[in-house]
Amino acid sequence: MYELLKDLGAWLVDGEQWTGPDGIGHRLAEHLQYSLLATLVAAAIALPIGLLIGHTGRGAFVAINLSSFGRALPTVGLVVLVFLASGLSMWPVYIALVALAVPSIVTNTYAGMTAVDAEVKDAARGQGMRAHQVLLQVELPLALPLIMTGLRLALIQVVATATIAAYVSFGGLGRYVFDGLAQRDLVQVLGGAVLVALVAVVLDLALSGLQRVLFRHRPAKSA
Amino acid sequence: MTIDWSWITDHRDDLTTLTLSHLQAALSAVALGLLISLPLAVLAHRVRPLRGLLLGLSNVLFTIPSIAVFVLLLPVSGLTRTTTVIGLTIYTLVVLLRNTVEGLDSVPARTKEAAKAMGTRPLRTLLTVELPLALPVIMAGVRIATVMSISLVSVATYIGDGGLGQLFTDGFQRNFPTPVIVGVVLTLLLALVADALLVALQYVLTPWTRRRKGA
Protein backbone atom coordinates (compact mmCIF):
# COMPACT_ATOMS: atom_id res chain seq x y z
CA MET A 1 0.00 0.00 0.00
CA TYR A 2 2.88 2.35 0.84
CA GLU A 3 4.57 1.57 -2.49
CA LEU A 4 1.32 2.32 -4.29
CA LEU A 5 0.97 5.69 -2.58
CA LYS A 6 4.58 6.55 -3.38
CA ASP A 7 4.04 5.68 -7.05
CA LEU A 8 0.85 7.72 -7.05
CA GLY A 9 2.67 10.73 -5.61
CA ALA A 10 5.38 10.39 -8.25
CA TRP A 11 2.72 10.09 -10.99
CA LEU A 12 0.92 13.22 -9.82
CA VAL A 13 3.97 15.48 -9.50
CA ASP A 14 5.80 14.30 -12.63
CA GLY A 15 6.09 17.43 -14.78
CA GLU A 16 5.85 15.48 -18.03
CA GLN A 17 2.56 14.02 -16.89
CA TRP A 18 1.03 17.49 -16.88
CA THR A 19 1.82 18.62 -20.43
CA GLY A 20 0.78 17.56 -23.92
CA PRO A 21 -2.58 16.34 -25.29
CA ASP A 22 -2.58 13.35 -22.90
CA GLY A 23 -1.35 15.48 -20.03
CA ILE A 24 -3.23 16.15 -16.83
CA GLY A 25 -3.56 19.85 -17.71
CA HIS A 26 -5.44 19.11 -20.91
CA ARG A 27 -7.56 16.32 -19.40
CA LEU A 28 -8.43 18.57 -16.48
CA ALA A 29 -9.58 21.33 -18.85
CA GLU A 30 -11.71 18.83 -20.78
CA HIS A 31 -13.22 17.46 -17.59
CA LEU A 32 -14.08 20.95 -16.36
CA GLN A 33 -15.58 21.84 -19.73
CA TYR A 34 -17.86 18.77 -19.77
CA SER A 35 -18.91 19.23 -16.14
CA LEU A 36 -19.53 22.96 -16.12
CA LEU A 37 -21.31 23.06 -19.47
CA ALA A 38 -23.58 20.14 -18.51
CA THR A 39 -24.39 21.67 -15.12
CA LEU A 40 -25.13 25.08 -16.68
CA VAL A 41 -27.48 23.57 -19.26
CA ALA A 42 -29.13 21.48 -16.55
CA ALA A 43 -29.58 24.57 -14.35
CA ALA A 44 -31.07 26.52 -17.26
CA ILE A 45 -33.64 23.74 -17.72
CA ALA A 46 -34.25 22.79 -14.11
CA LEU A 47 -34.36 26.13 -12.26
CA PRO A 48 -37.41 27.56 -14.10
CA ILE A 49 -39.23 24.23 -13.71
CA GLY A 50 -38.49 24.02 -9.99
CA LEU A 51 -39.45 27.66 -9.39
CA LEU A 52 -42.69 27.30 -11.32
CA ILE A 53 -43.73 24.08 -9.59
CA GLY A 54 -42.82 25.51 -6.20
CA HIS A 55 -44.61 28.81 -6.83
CA THR A 56 -47.84 27.42 -8.26
CA GLY A 57 -47.86 24.19 -6.26
CA ARG A 58 -48.89 22.45 -9.48
CA GLY A 59 -46.97 19.45 -10.70
CA ALA A 60 -45.49 18.68 -7.29
CA PHE A 61 -46.02 15.03 -8.14
CA VAL A 62 -43.73 15.49 -11.17
CA ALA A 63 -41.03 17.23 -9.12
CA ILE A 64 -40.97 14.53 -6.47
CA ASN A 65 -41.00 11.58 -8.85
CA LEU A 66 -38.51 13.14 -11.24
CA SER A 67 -35.84 12.87 -8.58
CA SER A 68 -36.44 9.15 -8.08
CA PHE A 69 -36.40 8.62 -11.80
CA GLY A 70 -33.18 10.58 -12.18
CA ARG A 71 -31.49 8.53 -9.49
CA ALA A 72 -32.73 5.26 -10.93
CA LEU A 73 -31.61 5.94 -14.50
CA PRO A 74 -28.39 3.97 -15.07
CA THR A 75 -26.02 6.53 -16.58
CA VAL A 76 -23.81 3.94 -18.31
CA GLY A 77 -26.85 2.51 -20.07
CA LEU A 78 -28.04 5.96 -21.09
CA VAL A 79 -24.65 6.89 -22.53
CA VAL A 80 -24.41 3.64 -24.51
CA LEU A 81 -27.99 3.98 -25.72
CA VAL A 82 -27.60 7.55 -27.00
CA PHE A 83 -24.22 6.56 -28.42
CA LEU A 84 -25.75 3.71 -30.44
CA ALA A 85 -28.49 6.04 -31.64
CA SER A 86 -26.38 9.07 -32.54
CA GLY A 87 -22.97 7.70 -33.45
CA LEU A 88 -19.63 9.00 -32.32
CA SER A 89 -20.17 12.45 -30.84
CA MET A 90 -20.18 14.18 -27.48
CA TRP A 91 -24.00 14.15 -27.48
CA PRO A 92 -24.39 10.94 -25.45
CA VAL A 93 -22.15 12.26 -22.71
CA TYR A 94 -23.82 15.66 -22.48
CA ILE A 95 -27.33 14.24 -22.62
CA ALA A 96 -26.53 11.74 -19.88
CA LEU A 97 -24.87 14.35 -17.66
CA VAL A 98 -27.73 16.84 -18.07
CA ALA A 99 -30.27 14.09 -17.39
CA LEU A 100 -28.34 13.28 -14.22
CA ALA A 101 -28.21 16.88 -12.97
CA VAL A 102 -31.74 18.10 -13.77
CA PRO A 103 -33.61 16.08 -11.11
CA SER A 104 -31.36 17.17 -8.22
CA ILE A 105 -31.80 20.83 -9.15
CA VAL A 106 -35.57 20.62 -9.75
CA THR A 107 -36.24 18.79 -6.47
CA ASN A 108 -34.09 21.04 -4.34
CA THR A 109 -35.50 24.20 -5.93
CA TYR A 110 -38.98 22.87 -5.35
CA ALA A 111 -38.14 21.91 -1.77
CA GLY A 112 -36.68 25.38 -1.16
CA MET A 113 -39.79 27.06 -2.52
CA THR A 114 -42.20 24.99 -0.44
CA ALA A 115 -40.12 25.63 2.69
CA VAL A 116 -40.92 29.35 2.43
CA ASP A 117 -43.36 30.26 5.19
CA ALA A 118 -46.90 30.70 3.89
CA GLU A 119 -47.38 33.69 6.23
CA VAL A 120 -44.42 35.45 4.65
CA LYS A 121 -45.97 35.00 1.22
CA ASP A 122 -49.33 36.22 2.55
CA ALA A 123 -47.66 39.28 4.03
CA ALA A 124 -45.98 40.03 0.70
CA ARG A 125 -49.28 39.73 -1.12
CA GLY A 126 -50.97 41.82 1.58
CA GLN A 127 -48.51 44.60 0.83
CA GLY A 128 -49.75 44.56 -2.73
CA MET A 129 -46.99 42.54 -4.36
CA ARG A 130 -47.87 40.84 -7.61
CA ALA A 131 -47.32 37.14 -8.21
CA HIS A 132 -44.04 37.59 -10.05
CA GLN A 133 -42.80 40.04 -7.40
CA VAL A 134 -43.58 37.56 -4.65
CA LEU A 135 -41.76 34.89 -6.65
CA LEU A 136 -38.63 36.90 -7.44
CA GLN A 137 -38.34 39.17 -4.40
CA VAL A 138 -39.60 36.97 -1.58
CA GLU A 139 -39.70 33.28 -2.44
CA LEU A 140 -36.52 33.08 -4.54
CA PRO A 141 -34.19 34.77 -2.00
CA LEU A 142 -35.58 32.66 0.83
CA ALA A 143 -35.28 29.48 -1.21
CA LEU A 144 -31.74 30.23 -2.39
CA PRO A 145 -29.83 28.22 0.23
CA LEU A 146 -31.64 25.01 -0.75
CA ILE A 147 -31.36 25.87 -4.44
CA MET A 148 -27.60 26.24 -3.98
CA THR A 149 -27.50 22.87 -2.22
CA GLY A 150 -29.19 21.34 -5.26
CA LEU A 151 -26.69 22.96 -7.62
CA ARG A 152 -23.76 21.73 -5.53
CA LEU A 153 -25.15 18.20 -5.42
CA ALA A 154 -25.72 18.24 -9.17
CA LEU A 155 -22.22 19.53 -9.85
CA ILE A 156 -20.59 16.84 -7.68
CA GLN A 157 -22.57 14.11 -9.43
CA VAL A 158 -21.74 15.51 -12.85
CA VAL A 159 -18.02 15.85 -12.10
CA ALA A 160 -17.87 12.26 -10.84
CA THR A 161 -19.90 10.94 -13.75
CA ALA A 162 -18.11 12.93 -16.49
CA THR A 163 -15.55 10.14 -16.10
CA ILE A 164 -17.86 8.22 -18.41
CA ALA A 165 -16.89 10.39 -21.42
CA ALA A 166 -13.75 8.26 -21.65
CA TYR A 167 -15.86 5.11 -21.96
CA VAL A 168 -17.10 6.28 -25.37
CA SER A 169 -13.56 7.33 -26.33
CA PHE A 170 -13.62 11.00 -25.34
CA GLY A 171 -11.32 12.82 -22.96
CA GLY A 172 -11.50 14.18 -19.46
CA LEU A 173 -9.92 12.70 -16.37
CA GLY A 174 -11.82 9.45 -16.96
CA ARG A 175 -9.17 8.68 -19.62
CA TYR A 176 -6.74 7.75 -16.85
CA VAL A 177 -9.30 5.52 -15.17
CA PHE A 178 -10.27 3.63 -18.32
CA ASP A 179 -6.79 3.53 -19.89
CA GLY A 180 -5.36 2.42 -16.57
CA LEU A 181 -8.00 -0.31 -16.35
CA ALA A 182 -7.23 -1.53 -19.85
CA GLN A 183 -3.48 -1.50 -19.17
CA ARG A 184 -3.84 -2.97 -15.67
CA ASP A 185 -2.02 0.14 -14.43
CA LEU A 186 -3.41 0.72 -10.96
CA VAL A 187 -1.36 3.87 -10.33
CA GLN A 188 -2.91 5.57 -13.34
CA VAL A 189 -6.45 4.56 -12.30
CA LEU A 190 -5.81 5.78 -8.79
CA GLY A 191 -4.34 9.04 -10.13
CA GLY A 192 -7.41 9.67 -12.28
CA ALA A 193 -9.75 8.93 -9.36
CA VAL A 194 -7.85 11.21 -7.01
CA LEU A 195 -7.91 14.05 -9.56
CA VAL A 196 -11.66 13.70 -10.16
CA ALA A 197 -12.31 13.69 -6.43
CA LEU A 198 -10.11 16.78 -6.02
CA VAL A 199 -11.96 18.63 -8.78
CA ALA A 200 -15.31 17.78 -7.19
CA VAL A 201 -14.20 18.86 -3.72
CA VAL A 202 -12.64 22.11 -4.96
CA LEU A 203 -15.71 23.04 -7.04
CA ASP A 204 -17.99 22.23 -4.12
CA LEU A 205 -15.93 24.42 -1.80
CA ALA A 206 -15.96 27.21 -4.38
CA LEU A 207 -19.75 27.07 -4.64
CA SER A 208 -20.21 26.98 -0.87
CA GLY A 209 -17.86 29.97 -0.61
CA LEU A 210 -19.91 31.81 -3.19
CA GLN A 211 -23.02 30.94 -1.24
CA ARG A 212 -21.49 32.37 1.94
CA VAL A 213 -20.59 35.62 0.19
CA LEU A 214 -24.07 35.91 -1.31
CA PHE A 215 -25.85 35.42 2.01
CA ARG A 216 -23.51 37.36 4.23
CA HIS A 217 -26.17 39.93 5.02
CA ARG A 218 -28.42 37.33 6.57
CA PRO A 219 -28.16 36.51 10.29
CA ALA A 220 -26.76 33.07 10.92
CA LYS A 221 -29.43 30.44 11.36
CA SER A 222 -29.17 28.18 14.35
CA ALA A 223 -30.36 25.17 12.41
CA MET B 1 -33.32 1.97 -33.18
CA THR B 2 -35.43 -1.17 -33.21
CA ILE B 3 -35.91 -3.72 -30.50
CA ASP B 4 -35.25 -7.34 -31.36
CA TRP B 5 -38.05 -8.96 -29.40
CA SER B 6 -36.92 -12.51 -30.17
CA TRP B 7 -33.61 -11.76 -28.40
CA ILE B 8 -35.59 -11.00 -25.26
CA THR B 9 -37.58 -14.24 -25.33
CA ASP B 10 -34.42 -16.20 -26.14
CA HIS B 11 -32.60 -14.75 -23.15
CA ARG B 12 -35.36 -14.87 -20.55
CA ASP B 13 -33.36 -17.07 -18.19
CA ASP B 14 -30.24 -14.90 -18.46
CA LEU B 15 -32.30 -11.79 -17.80
CA THR B 16 -33.82 -13.32 -14.67
CA THR B 17 -30.39 -14.32 -13.38
CA LEU B 18 -28.94 -10.87 -14.06
CA THR B 19 -31.91 -9.11 -12.45
CA LEU B 20 -31.67 -11.22 -9.30
CA SER B 21 -27.91 -10.73 -9.05
CA HIS B 22 -28.42 -6.99 -9.61
CA LEU B 23 -30.99 -6.78 -6.84
CA GLN B 24 -28.87 -8.84 -4.46
CA ALA B 25 -25.89 -6.51 -4.86
CA ALA B 26 -27.98 -3.36 -4.34
CA LEU B 27 -29.91 -4.65 -1.32
CA SER B 28 -26.80 -6.05 0.40
CA ALA B 29 -25.21 -2.62 0.05
CA VAL B 30 -28.18 -0.82 1.59
CA ALA B 31 -28.40 -3.30 4.46
CA LEU B 32 -24.68 -2.98 5.16
CA GLY B 33 -24.90 0.80 4.82
CA LEU B 34 -27.69 0.93 7.42
CA LEU B 35 -25.76 -1.32 9.78
CA ILE B 36 -22.73 1.00 9.60
CA SER B 37 -24.47 4.36 9.47
CA LEU B 38 -26.90 3.90 12.37
CA PRO B 39 -24.29 3.79 15.15
CA LEU B 40 -22.21 6.45 13.38
CA ALA B 41 -25.25 8.72 13.09
CA VAL B 42 -26.07 8.35 16.78
CA LEU B 43 -22.46 9.22 17.53
CA ALA B 44 -22.53 12.24 15.20
CA HIS B 45 -25.82 13.38 16.73
CA ARG B 46 -24.56 13.13 20.32
CA VAL B 47 -20.94 14.21 19.93
CA ARG B 48 -20.94 17.54 18.11
CA PRO B 49 -17.24 17.66 17.19
CA LEU B 50 -17.54 14.29 15.41
CA ARG B 51 -20.52 15.46 13.40
CA GLY B 52 -18.67 17.69 10.93
CA LEU B 53 -15.88 15.16 10.60
CA LEU B 54 -18.14 12.19 9.83
CA LEU B 55 -20.44 14.08 7.47
CA GLY B 56 -17.50 15.74 5.74
CA LEU B 57 -15.70 12.44 5.31
CA SER B 58 -18.75 10.78 3.79
CA ASN B 59 -19.15 13.75 1.44
CA VAL B 60 -15.59 13.37 0.19
CA LEU B 61 -16.15 9.63 -0.38
CA PHE B 62 -19.21 10.53 -2.44
CA THR B 63 -17.17 12.67 -4.84
CA ILE B 64 -14.90 9.77 -5.85
CA PRO B 65 -16.27 8.32 -9.10
CA SER B 66 -17.81 4.90 -8.59
CA ILE B 67 -15.74 3.37 -11.40
CA ALA B 68 -12.60 4.34 -9.52
CA VAL B 69 -13.94 3.05 -6.19
CA PHE B 70 -14.58 -0.38 -7.70
CA VAL B 71 -11.15 -0.51 -9.30
CA LEU B 72 -9.36 0.72 -6.20
CA LEU B 73 -10.93 -2.11 -4.22
CA LEU B 74 -9.49 -4.72 -6.62
CA PRO B 75 -6.22 -5.17 -4.69
CA VAL B 76 -8.27 -5.66 -1.51
CA SER B 77 -11.13 -7.90 -2.59
CA GLY B 78 -10.42 -8.89 -6.19
CA LEU B 79 -12.84 -9.42 -9.08
CA THR B 80 -15.67 -10.50 -6.82
CA ARG B 81 -19.15 -9.62 -5.67
CA THR B 82 -17.56 -8.35 -2.45
CA THR B 83 -15.90 -5.52 -4.35
CA THR B 84 -19.23 -4.48 -5.87
CA VAL B 85 -21.02 -4.55 -2.54
CA ILE B 86 -18.30 -2.64 -0.66
CA GLY B 87 -18.19 0.01 -3.40
CA LEU B 88 -21.95 0.47 -3.35
CA THR B 89 -22.04 0.52 0.45
CA ILE B 90 -19.65 3.47 0.45
CA TYR B 91 -22.15 5.37 -1.68
CA THR B 92 -25.16 4.52 0.49
CA LEU B 93 -23.30 5.78 3.56
CA VAL B 94 -23.44 9.42 2.46
CA VAL B 95 -27.22 9.49 2.17
CA LEU B 96 -27.97 7.20 5.10
CA LEU B 97 -25.63 8.94 7.53
CA ARG B 98 -26.86 12.44 6.64
CA ASN B 99 -30.53 11.54 6.79
CA THR B 100 -30.24 9.59 10.02
CA VAL B 101 -28.42 12.50 11.70
CA GLU B 102 -31.00 14.94 10.35
CA GLY B 103 -33.80 12.64 11.48
CA LEU B 104 -32.39 12.48 15.01
CA ASP B 105 -31.92 16.27 14.98
CA SER B 106 -35.56 16.72 14.00
CA VAL B 107 -36.83 15.11 17.21
CA PRO B 108 -37.99 18.00 19.41
CA ALA B 109 -35.89 18.55 22.55
CA ARG B 110 -39.11 18.70 24.56
CA THR B 111 -39.99 15.14 23.59
CA LYS B 112 -36.63 13.90 24.77
CA GLU B 113 -36.96 15.86 28.01
CA ALA B 114 -40.38 14.37 28.58
CA ALA B 115 -38.94 10.88 28.17
CA LYS B 116 -36.13 11.78 30.56
CA ALA B 117 -38.58 13.18 33.12
CA MET B 118 -40.52 9.94 32.99
CA GLY B 119 -37.34 8.15 33.99
CA THR B 120 -36.56 6.59 30.62
CA ARG B 121 -32.88 5.74 30.24
CA PRO B 122 -30.91 7.22 27.32
CA LEU B 123 -30.60 3.96 25.33
CA ARG B 124 -34.29 3.24 25.74
CA THR B 125 -35.15 6.81 24.75
CA LEU B 126 -33.05 6.36 21.63
CA LEU B 127 -34.70 3.09 20.65
CA THR B 128 -38.30 3.80 21.62
CA VAL B 129 -38.61 7.57 21.18
CA GLU B 130 -35.90 9.12 19.02
CA LEU B 131 -35.45 6.48 16.31
CA PRO B 132 -39.19 5.96 15.69
CA LEU B 133 -39.74 9.73 15.46
CA ALA B 134 -36.75 10.05 13.15
CA LEU B 135 -38.04 7.20 11.00
CA PRO B 136 -39.69 9.28 8.24
CA VAL B 137 -36.42 11.15 7.55
CA ILE B 138 -34.37 7.95 7.86
CA MET B 139 -36.72 6.13 5.48
CA ALA B 140 -36.37 8.97 2.99
CA GLY B 141 -32.63 8.25 3.09
CA VAL B 142 -33.17 4.51 2.71
CA ARG B 143 -35.34 5.12 -0.36
CA ILE B 144 -32.71 7.35 -1.97
CA ALA B 145 -29.90 4.92 -1.10
CA THR B 146 -31.84 1.96 -2.51
CA VAL B 147 -32.74 3.63 -5.80
CA MET B 148 -29.20 5.01 -6.16
CA SER B 149 -27.62 1.60 -5.48
CA ILE B 150 -29.87 -0.12 -8.00
CA SER B 151 -28.76 2.38 -10.62
CA LEU B 152 -25.08 2.19 -9.64
CA VAL B 153 -24.70 -1.61 -9.79
CA SER B 154 -24.27 -1.26 -13.57
CA VAL B 155 -21.00 0.59 -13.07
CA ALA B 156 -19.46 -2.57 -11.61
CA THR B 157 -19.74 -4.09 -15.07
CA TYR B 158 -16.23 -2.71 -15.68
CA ILE B 159 -14.85 -5.14 -13.14
CA GLY B 160 -16.85 -8.03 -14.55
CA ASP B 161 -19.80 -7.91 -12.16
CA GLY B 162 -22.61 -5.39 -12.40
CA GLY B 163 -25.81 -7.42 -12.88
CA LEU B 164 -27.90 -5.81 -15.60
CA GLY B 165 -24.96 -3.54 -16.40
CA GLN B 166 -23.45 -6.43 -18.33
CA LEU B 167 -26.19 -5.88 -20.89
CA PHE B 168 -24.79 -2.38 -21.54
CA THR B 169 -21.27 -3.65 -22.23
CA ASP B 170 -22.68 -6.44 -24.39
CA GLY B 171 -24.78 -4.04 -26.46
CA PHE B 172 -21.96 -1.52 -26.74
CA GLN B 173 -19.42 -4.09 -27.93
CA ARG B 174 -21.76 -5.64 -30.50
CA ASN B 175 -23.35 -2.34 -31.55
CA PHE B 176 -26.71 -3.95 -30.71
CA PRO B 177 -29.23 -1.71 -28.86
CA THR B 178 -31.72 -4.33 -27.64
CA PRO B 179 -29.83 -5.51 -24.53
CA VAL B 180 -29.06 -1.90 -23.61
CA ILE B 181 -32.72 -0.89 -23.81
CA VAL B 182 -33.78 -3.98 -21.87
CA GLY B 183 -31.11 -3.27 -19.24
CA VAL B 184 -32.20 0.35 -18.78
CA VAL B 185 -35.90 -0.56 -18.58
CA LEU B 186 -35.32 -3.42 -16.11
CA THR B 187 -33.12 -1.20 -13.90
CA LEU B 188 -35.80 1.51 -13.84
CA LEU B 189 -38.51 -1.05 -13.06
CA LEU B 190 -36.47 -2.58 -10.23
CA ALA B 191 -35.89 0.85 -8.71
CA LEU B 192 -39.54 1.82 -9.07
CA VAL B 193 -40.82 -1.37 -7.42
CA ALA B 194 -38.25 -1.20 -4.61
CA ASP B 195 -39.16 2.43 -3.93
CA ALA B 196 -42.89 1.67 -3.88
CA LEU B 197 -42.32 -1.21 -1.43
CA LEU B 198 -40.31 1.08 0.86
CA VAL B 199 -43.10 3.69 0.79
CA ALA B 200 -45.54 0.95 1.80
CA LEU B 201 -43.19 -0.18 4.57
CA GLN B 202 -42.92 3.36 5.91
CA TYR B 203 -46.73 3.70 5.85
CA VAL B 204 -47.00 0.59 7.98
CA LEU B 205 -44.17 1.59 10.35
CA THR B 206 -45.31 5.15 11.08
CA PRO B 207 -49.04 5.08 11.79
CA TRP B 208 -48.92 8.39 13.72
CA THR B 209 -47.96 10.40 10.62
CA ARG B 210 -51.17 9.24 8.96
CA ARG B 211 -53.42 10.51 11.72
CA ARG B 212 -51.74 13.90 11.81
CA LYS B 213 -52.42 14.52 8.13
CA GLY B 214 -56.19 14.39 8.69
CA ALA B 215 -56.11 17.26 11.18
TrEMBL record, chain A:
InterPro entries documented for this protein: ABC_transp_perm/SBD, MetI-like, MetI-like_sf
Transmembrane feature ranges: 32-53, 60-85, 91-111, 153-174, 186-207
Main localization (coarse): membrane
All copies of domain ABC transmembrane type-1, residue ranges: 32-207
Compartment(s) of residence: Cell membrane; Membrane
GO cellular component assignments: plasma membrane
Keyword Transmembrane: yes
Keywords from the UniProt entry: Membrane, Transmembrane, Transmembrane helix, Transport
Keyword set includes Transmembrane: yes
Membrane topology: Multi-pass membrane protein
CDD domains: TM_PBP2 (cd06261)
Biological processes, Gene Ontology terms: glycine betaine transport; transmembrane transport
SUPFAM superfamilies assigned to the protein according to its UniProt record, in alphabetical order: MetI-like
Similarity comment text for this entry: Belongs to the binding-protein-dependent transport system permease family.
Alphabetized PANTHER family for the sequence: GLYCINE BETAINE/L-PROLINE TRANSPORT SYSTEM PERMEASE PROTEIN PROW, POSSIBLE OSMOPROTECTANT (GLYCINE BETAINE_CARNITINE_CHOLINE_L-PROLINE) TRANSPORT INTEGRAL MEMBRANE PROTEIN ABC TRANSPORTER PROZ
Stated name of the protein: Glycine betaine ABC transport system permease protein
Source species: Streptomyces formicae
UniProtKB/TrEMBL annotation, chain B:
Biological process, per Gene Ontology: glycine betaine transport; transmembrane transport
Family listed: Belongs to the binding-protein-dependent transport system permease family.
Name of the protein in question: ABC transporter permease
TM stretches of this protein: 20-41, 53-73, 79-97, 133-160, 180-205
Natural source organism: Streptomyces formicae
Keywords, sorted A to Z: Membrane, Transmembrane, Transmembrane helix, Transport
One matching Pfam family: BPD_transp_1
Gene Ontology CC: one annotated term: plasma membrane
Record membrane topology: Multi-pass membrane protein
ABC transmembrane type-1 domain mapped to chain residues: 19-198
